[in-house]
Each structure stands twice: as structure tokens, then as C-alpha cells.
């Protein structure tokens, strides 16, 4: 055999010896990564982090399953006595099988990468049965001695419990299970048959009977709103308590269940008295709890049996580690085990214990634990947990990314140039994703914007008096704002078209007004301008990159046609420098006395010059009034989009840093606005008044 052949053979021998060792260490490293970084994604919009977590999530299971399959086959290196190998190396490596079950059980911070993974819980159950069977086969095949058998039994207990815990968490977070667990107790209502029987007997007795109906909801609703109007700051403990209490009620919205009017009045009474900052904090905590329910083991570990299992796995893993080291250091078969394998086994034990202890610490310092202890009146423990929460999860830290994406049509049209790369991406159908990534940036959701949305919603809540008003407000997307400001006659046409068209019209008009307005630097106007542009660019981002979160329409077609017309216009005008200001003023320079549709028909869905007409109408208003109108129209459009978005799409955004639209939707629900309530439901108090003839 030549030198190259011997070199390759020795290299292959080293690989065969180290392959399973590297697999075990890699599996442990992936578990560490998932434990520490999986929970970050609910506060981070980074695509890189999301990609790394996705790869780690998939690789963690794949490597563990492959390693179990590897262990099921005894590979004896060349030149090694098979009997000696089976007695030593294979025997201690067989102890690694339950560790792989432990790794397949995953970490508390992530059971499902996306909410669709929860629907695959039956597949995970089948995998649990097969992998446990394979691990038992691997272990029994090695004919373990007493020094390996004792710790292995305890590790099997930990591994099976952890794997079962993950499967149960997936089942608990599946849509069908969530819905069935949240359906309220059947309510037959007042006894109609008995009441009508009494009414009939009364009439037959010759008595005059009159039925008087008293509605249950009106007095309660009025009292609740009256009590809640005055804002007051409450302690952070009350904020957490309110969030935990309302989460039990409002999590039903994520599975398309509706709420009763009693729940609406209670929620209104609380939120109308909270400051805007505390109202948003309650919403943030609730959405964080919902993320935990859908993507982690929270629904399992924060139960009495979950806590029991956690103590069991910690105790059994600690016992296994202690037994292995005591028996090994006593000298039982010490000389027959490979020193490297012993070190790796101890690394696996140490890693398992550290992960378990850290997970228990996270479980204790959580809103779930604090709420449970507070509800049981364990004041000392709940205060201790609260102080820990304040230290590790301070009130000032946002529970979601607190970012809003920005996409600008004029800037995109000026910067989007055809290249070989973009042509290739177009052929592959990936250009839309590329454009969304390249031309989208994120900004902080400003405190002023949050205050504005809260105040507008609160004003509507206080002013709305009946169910019809609620329904009307839910369907307004600029009409109410224009009517209140007195400009519906001049500008109403722009909000009566399809919603995606309204977004494009007002987005372009907002940009045109911004670039043509010399008063933007005015300190009194600047906040209005900043908020308006932020909402405008955010709504366009939703139209382009999150069309599923908006009502059905042809938004992407309309956006594409508008971009095509804008590019043609800028190209003919010779716009060489990609500056949005001059480009916007060029658009405004076009005469738009006649509606574009009357000139060019409606085959193209472009709204570029319709938006120009809208901008010119807005520019006729004084600057301060103009930006007030633009601002409140965008708030109304934002609320309309939030209310009309399907709940499962809101749920999907929780794992990607959250979405402002979801926060607004949940805030609206807590303020009693939306289509989630049986506004006119409730038991009517019927009284039978009898008078003698």
C-alpha cells in the first residue's frame, strides 16, 4: 500500500473513532445555543439570528437521531480486539444514548420554531416511541455492567421525561387543543320554557301579565367607563397581575374565539384608568406570555406536574452523574474505559446539569411563577420573585422588538436598478424577497406614536355608546378622521377606494407633502411629520412584505404598476441622482386637473398621479392642519388593518420580534373595540308583572 493509501486509512480510522464523540459534543453545543438564544427572537428582528436558530433547531434533532442510529451499529476499528472493544468503548458509549433522548427533549425556550410545528405533535409522539425504543436497544445490546447500568437507568428517566415533556408541550400549543381548552362552559341561558309556562298560567287565571325586560349590560358598561376614564399610575406588580389576569381571557382571540360583554367592560375599566405606558406594558407582557405558550414549554412546566417533572429530571440527572463518577473512581473497570470517552461523558453530565439548573432558574424568575404565587397569597415568595424579575427583566426593557419596518416607494423606485443579480432573482422568483430585505429598514416605535394611538383609541372608546357605533368604527379607515376634521367632502374619495389603494395613495401623498413642505423644520409640526411618515412607510411595508396581514386585494399588483410608472416617469425626466426630494417635486409639477383614469383607462393599476392629486389637495391646507389630518388618517388606517388581520397571522409574528400591528390589535381588543365581542349579548332580566283585572 502506498503512502497516500496508508495516510487515508489512518485518517479514516481517526474519523471513525471520533465521529460519535464529535456528534455528542455538537448535539450538546446546539442545546446550549438554543437555550440561551431561542428566547431572544421575540425581542429581535434580526434575519441572521432567525436563520441561525432555524438551522440549530433542525440540526439538533437530526444530529441526535443520527447519533442514535450510529450507536446502534458496533463499529470495531481495524486491529482492535472486538471483545475488548465491546467491553470498553461500546459499553461506555452506550451510556450516551439516554443523553440523546435528553437532547431530543429540547430546551424550555423552544419547542416549536413556527406555530405550524405544533400541529406535528403526533409525528413527534411517534418519534418519541421509536427513538426511546432505539435507545433501549442500543443500551441493552452493549451488555452494560453495574457501573454503567445504574447511572443509565436514571438518565433514561430524565431523557424520557424531557422528550415526553416536549411532545406534550407541542400538543398543548396546537390550535385544536388550544381552542378546546379555551371554550367556555356551556351556558343554557335563562329558563325560557319555565318563564313562558308561568306566563301562560297567569293569563289562564284571568290576570293581566306584563313582561318587562331589563338589559344587563348598559348599567355595568356605563359604570365601568365612568370609573375608568381618569388615568392613574399603578405599581409594576399590578401591571404584571393585570397582564396575567387578562392573558387567560384574551388568549382566546388567537384561536378565533369571541368574548362576552362582561369581559369587555372589565377590560375597559382597567385600561381606561392606566397610563399609556402601563397599558402598553400590560399588552407586551400578555403577548410575551402568548409567545411562551406557542413556542416554548411554558404551558407544561408552569403546572403542578410540570414542576414535579422538573424536580424529577434534576434529581435523576444529578444521581446519575454522582453514581457514574463514584463507581468510576472506585476503580470498577477503570482501566478498560477510554480516558477521552470518560471525559466526554462527564462533559455531557455537566452540560445536562448546567442546562437543567439554568432552565429552572428561568422558570422561577418568570411572570408565570410570580402570578401563580401571588394568586395563592404567598406574599414573601412572590415579592422575592418580583425583585428578581425587576433585576433580570426590568420594567424599562421592552418585551418585544419595539421596532417598525420602513419601506418607501419613491426611494425604492430611484434605487432599484436592473442588474444581472436582480434579473437572476426575478427568474428564480426571489426578487420580491430581495427587494424587501434590501430596501427595508427598521426604526424604533416612538413614544409619541404610542401615545397618539392610545389617545385616539381611548377617545373612541369613551365616545362610542352602542353596538352600531362599535361596528362603524371597526370599519372606518380614514372616513371618521376626515369627517371629524371637516375634510371628507374634499378628500373622502381617497379612503372610499380599496384599502390597498388607499394605502398607496396616502403613502405617496404623505411623501410628496413632506418633500414639498418648507415648514417641516417647525418645532410644532415636526412631531406630526415624523409620526405620519413613520406610519406611512410602515403601512407600505405591510402592503409589500406582509400582504397576508392586510385585507384581500391586489395590493402587490397595484404597487408594481405604480413603481413601473414612477420609474418610467423618472427615467424620461432624466433623474440621475437618487434624491427623493427633487423627484417628489417633479411629480407635483405634473398637471393633474383630469383624473388619470379618464386619460389612460384602468388597465394599469398605478395610482402615482392620483396620489399627486391628493397631495395637491392636502397642500392647500395650512401646514399644521395638513399634518394633523394626515396623522389621524394613518392612525385610523393602522387600526383598521390591525382589526381586519386574521389572528393566526398575528400569532405568527410573535416569533419574529413582534409587530406593531399586533400590539395595536391587542390594545384595541382590551379597549373593547373590534369584532371579538358579543356586544348585545347577555342575559336579559325578564320580570313578570301581574295586575288584577
Automatic annotation (TrEMBL):
Keywords: Membrane, Transmembrane, Transmembrane helix. InterPro entries: DUF4220 (IPR025315), DUF594 (IPR007658). Pfam families: DUF4220, DUF594. The chain crosses the membrane at residues 20-40, 47-68, 304-327, 347-370. Residues 54-412 form the DUF4220 domain. The keyword Transmembrane helix applies. This is DUF4220 domain-containing protein. It comes from Panicum hallii.
